Task: structure prediction
Amino acid sequence: KKRIRPPRYLSQLLDWYCVNRKDKPDWPTEGREYNRRNNRFLEIMTFIGDCQTEDPDVVRRIDDGLEAYADFRAENSNVKGQSIKRDMKDSIAAFRRVSKRFKLKWVIEVPEISEQAPSERGVLTDEEQVALVRSCLQTNDKIAAILLAQFHAGLMATEVLRLNFDFERSVILDGALPYLLIKEVTKAEDRKRLVPLVIGLDVIRQNLPEALVWLSSVTESAHSHALKKRLVKATGNPRLTAHCLRHTWNSNATAAGIDFMHRVLIGGWNAGGKESAASRESRNYGKASLQRSRNVQALYNSQLKVFDHLLHLEANASAGGNVTSINSRC
Result:
């Protein structure tokens, strides 16, 4: 018997769910109610990133995206945890219904949302950031290369791995303005983030190819454990995970006061209200426009501001400075 296939892309799932709710009444596919529900779904999708529903890492991407969305809402609005969960309810219902109908075996979890101020958790202190960079410069291996790449824009390991699909055009390490081009190919558009590299370039250049081979050869749980182990060893903080680098970059960008459009183009951060227009505008940057030398230079200058408190570490390391971790264990 021929298998019935699901909608091809995640971004199509809400529209499918509106008219495939099994024993429940259909939802409208136009008008105010539909627009409200669809706008919320699209907002969540900016954190997940569109991909094919049968991609091997789709569940991890959905879970990471939901967690990032929940954290961002908690950090940038005054709404309570229950309100954030309510805003995710329809999207999660659509994911779960598609999984059940097409036997995809997804297990979609609702993120845990603390009622405490999340700004106090999930961000490396300045001292921990110093310890991490020093550790990466000293160890100079594939784990260090991955962590440095992640640190530059809060990248997930799966985003780093996707550099392998078009390495020559996505990894620009030569010249005065090195960067990574993170591409999100969707059914309707080709979104890009340009991530300038300002610290640990030699470590990334020497070890990234090996790192990508390693990421593709191990399970997600294995590389998550390895990255966390290195973070904890460098900083002495057992609560940190690689996901914390996402919050840390965002916090550093806020402290540096960089242009919001640059923040979107580097970090991919979505924002509500008037700032959401900048996120939508970023999707109009074509490859040629984003990679024009003037634009790369402007983004590079902003990235220098984000990491201004760490730039001296590389000079110290080159001069043979003392490279130790926060707790002298790395």
Observations:
- The two ends are 56 Å apart (CA to CA).
